Amino acid sequence: MTMQMGSKSNSKPGQDRISGLPDEILCHILSFTSTVDAVKASVLSRRWENMWLRVPTLYLSDDDFRSDEREFDPERFVAFVDRALFLRGSSSIHRISIRCSDTENYPHLDEWICTAIRGNVVELELDLHESDFQYEPLELPRSLFMSRSLVVLKLTLEENYVAIPPSSDCFPCLKLLDVSVFYPDPATMESLFTCGPVLEHLIIEGYLGEDQYLNFNIFAPKLKRLELRFDPCDEVDSVSNILFNVNAPKLERLDLNENFLASYCLSENALSEANISFSDLHSDIQFITGSVDHIQRLFEGIVNVKHLSLQAPFLGDPDTESRCNLPKLNNLKHLELQLENCCSWQLLTRLLTISPNLEYLVLEINIQCCEYPNEDGWSPPKLVPICLVSCLKNLFIRGFKGKPDDIEVAKYLLKHGEVLNNVTIYSYDVPAEDMLKVSQEIKGSNTCQVEFPKIDM
To answer: The F-box domain covers which part of the protein (predicted)?
Structure first.
């Protein structure tokens, strides 16, 4: 049988091919649009008229009712949400997202949430924002915490929002909890994260005032991943009054990004990976002196990690090193260390010294920051770290600019890396002829494979 290449499609010009798709696919397509747009699609044909009622998701945002052409009327949004929830009746809805830019305008908000829970919603997002003149606290309804269908919950909690769960039987099926905060209510932070019997993934992010006294109690016996990400405070000049008390025996991964160095109490856990960034936190003698116990407690909590990514300029400061004894990371195999140009090379030495079984090192250097560059040159340690002699097999250096310290560090690592197999040094802004000389100087007599790929900025 012969085949003709480039044969024409069987569709006729002007034919509506989308309407020819099965209902299940049309509903799937509509699930990626806002509910307002899904309702607008009803005018396309009689078949589309009630199609939006079968879509397993509802995206309800008052942003869809704002335009430059007319003044915003919150009553229009209230009427639309009331009608959308009423017409769905008792049918189950897989995912509901409700966004309100000014909750004071929406007295039916509690009723909307309760209706979603009665509809056996599986994924619920409440992106709620208060007005500048809202003084009465907004308390989330009890039924939210008691839902037996809810698996994913995303919340935005601002200053006057209260989410204090009942003392028992809360979130019985919740697997993912994602909470964005802005000057959060202290009582909520103490209790909200203590009632997830099957919670596996917890995200807390947003903004915490540096003058706040907050105690984050996290009790989750099945928690595997914890992400803590907070926007930078304006300035940190005193010891943080923020405590994270984490009781999660099955915790495997920690992602931490902040710049106020809270106090972390990580009970016995199963951590194998930690990604920690204090990129905006630089050394201050008064701050460091008062925060030594915070630093040590954090490292004691991650002492068993196998994979560590770290960016912490203040740890390379001599004042920090002299006051803080970091524990040995005996299980650490993979280290990714980011060094800003204000950071002392001593941080590299320190991490190599406390990681006797390190096999894989990624070193990113010359990262720009707002502080003055560190002028202390590279000083090799008195004793060669054990990992260089016996364990380190793979070395990657990024941000290499051919500066004297860059060269000396690379030479030292290759000289003492007796079991190195692969070395890759990524250079930036180094002329080819100069890089050839530098590469020969760095490699010396080491017989391992060394590559020098160039990356253009």
So the answer is: 15-51
